[in-house]
Amino acid sequence: METQNEVKNLLINRDNEIFKLYQQGQILQGYKVVSKLPKTFKTEYGNIPIKRRRYVKYNEKNKKYINCYPLDEELGLKKYERIEKNLKDKFISFMGDGKRYKDIMHTTENANISEKIISNIFKKADLEKVDYISNKNNNKIKIPNNVLYIQIDGAFVPMRENKKELKRKYFFQLCILVLMKKNQLKQEK
């Protein structure tokens, strides 16, 4: 609860700093402060409701008003997004670990996020931009002039205890790697 209040105070202070810079004329020139609108941010510490300032500028070409929320832009949030970027990155870092959605939910219990939200974050993740896979040692195997055969087989095996079959079954996996040089293949034939 303390960290939630600390984060809320940090966001309010940052919104006030942006407003002071606006008053000094350093940023958002041509914009006017219209109102304070409420928005709830989802962070690791829970939902944080805050009122942030809305800046408006009239565009004469399109004859429309342009809304700007500088606090949202600093946090990296789009118009209707609520989940903080750091929290999204934390979820995406679990993507390559093979964890279930429930396991990921339990790592951030205070965030109040459902399995569906985690699923949507995974679907929208752009894996080409950033390497989200947890294997940070991207050691590539170089096999010049060699042949690599990989066979994988698996089976669900019922386990018995005192001649009674247990309800749970275990999955055994067998992986065989064979590495041979091409020259050896020719000699053996």
Automatic annotation (TrEMBL):
<dbReference type="Pfam" id="PF06782">
    <property type="entry name" value="UPF0236"/>
</dbReference>
<dbReference type="InterPro" id="IPR009620">
    <property type="entry name" value="UPF0236"/>
</dbReference>
<protein>
    <submittedName>
        <fullName>Uncharacterized protein</fullName>
    </submittedName>
</protein>
<comment type="similarity">
    <text>Belongs to the UPF0236 family.</text>
</comment>
